[in-house]
Design a protein that fits this description.
- By secondary structure, this protein is α+β, with helices and mostly antiparallel strands.
- It has two domains: about 1-45, no CATH class; about 50-100.
- It has three helices and six strands; from the N terminus they run H-E-E-H-E-E-H-E-E.
- The N and C termini lie far apart (about 60 Å).
């Protein structure tokens, strides 16, 4: 993929409407200033899916799509860490969580 980055930056045959865009896709009109955005876009053309689910056969071109897949299909929740000292969390009469000593 390194060759495509070099080519997209130097190709004179690519119409650059705005020269401030460093990366211009040679297969469509997409352009970006950031390499990681261009990389993510170019996977659409190559069908590259580097992110693989460890629980099933699902593959994704984007890490955020993989995270969403795991939450939806494998019921993996966001994890939160709480440090509570000498207190308990209880539900009050309104159904709200509160700290109790």
């Amino acid at each position: 993929m390194e060759d495509i980055f070099t080519h997209s930056k130097t190709c004179e045959g690519v119409d650059r409407k705005d020269i401030s865009f460093t990366f211009v896709c040679i297969q469509c009109s997409y352009h970006s200033r950031q390499r990681n955005h261009f990389e993510r876009h170019f996977r659409r053309h190559t069908d590259e899916k580097p992110f693989r689910c460890e629980h099933c056969e699902y593959k994704s071109p984007r890490e955020d799509h993989m995270t969403s897949h795991k939450r939806r299909k494998h019921l993996l929740e966001k994890t939160s860490t709480f440090v509570i000292t000498k207190k308990a969390v209880v539900k009050n009469s309104k159904g709200e969580f509160i700290f109790a000593i």
